[in-house]
Design brief:
Two copies of one chain form a homodimer. The first copy, chain A, is mainly alpha-helical. Chain A is built from seven helices and three strands. The interface between A and B is large, with 63 and 62 residues. Chain A binds a DNA duplex (30 and 30 nucleotides) through helix 6.
DNA sequence: TTAACATATGAACAGATGTTCATGCATTGA
DNA sequence: TCAATGCATGAACATCTGTTCATATGTTAA
């Protein structure tokens, strides 16, 4: 009985349908919240058309801000802001030469993630 | 001279530093905007901690809304709203049984994308 | 049928996000 | 040194997003 009381105290708001074994096991095996938060932050970078287009352009070659601005048909400021986010997330890196800043991809995972995403949406379209 | 005028008309706001060869080539090889938009929509689903946690839980096993609600420590409504988004993006699928709705992953790409993301952030941390 | 329950969903709200505008900083060439 | 150029960045603004609340839908058991 004391045991029951403890369960009630610990599992506040427990719904009646909960499969306790499943819930406990899944909870234990989940990566910690910090990791998942960081992961979400990474994927957030892929979750905007402008940034995806920037990455996609950089798959081909290193480019300066001005080139990217022209390729995307967007203002230099907008591109620059997005590049800052991509830099912060270690997705792109800069190389400065004279007045220009040349951006390129920092890591081959980026393209792999991109390609898996493409596969997924293509299967979806076929289905 | 007429040629110069046309160039000015077509390439409005052209910056002076643009590397025209590079820009033209990259532009040609870029996937179309629709595809990149759809791709961004997909990755948007990975770009939220709640949804990442849901996917992560479903890697282990099929779960009902109520279980997920308990695992995440979040309200049923919030979870249900997110599941709807994941359903719409063909990331999860539902199986209904009695009063419950059991969710599971729709496609193995999802876990692969997740794992590549993990690799990326782990390399980042090591560096 | 009715009550209880699991889930879904619309509305409302707060907070996050992306672009533009204005401006600052560094580099280059005159 | 000064003007022009390429890039970065803060502020402002509109839009998008995620959660909560209230409520609806559909299923089950009594």
């Amino acid at each position: 009985m004391r045991n029951d009381i403890n369960i009630e105290i610990n599992d506040v708001c427990e719904e009646q349908c909960v499969h306790n074994d499943a819930v406990t096991e899944v909870k234990e095996k989940m990566p910690n919240l910090d990791t998942l938060f960081t992961l979400a932050e990474l994927f957030k970078m892929f979750g905007d058309t402008t940034r995806i287009r920037i990455m996609c352009a950089l798959f081909q070659r290193e480019l300066c801000v001005c080139d990217l601005s022209e390729i995307l048909g967007m203002g230099q400021s907008a591109v620059s802001h997005q590049l800052r986010l991509l830099r912060t997330s270690s997705i792109v890196k800069v190389r400065r030469e004279g007045k220009s800043a040349y951006y390129s991809l920092d890591d081959e995972h980026i393209q792999k993630i991109f390609e898996l995403g493409l596969e997924h949406i293509n299967e979806e379209r076929r289905a």
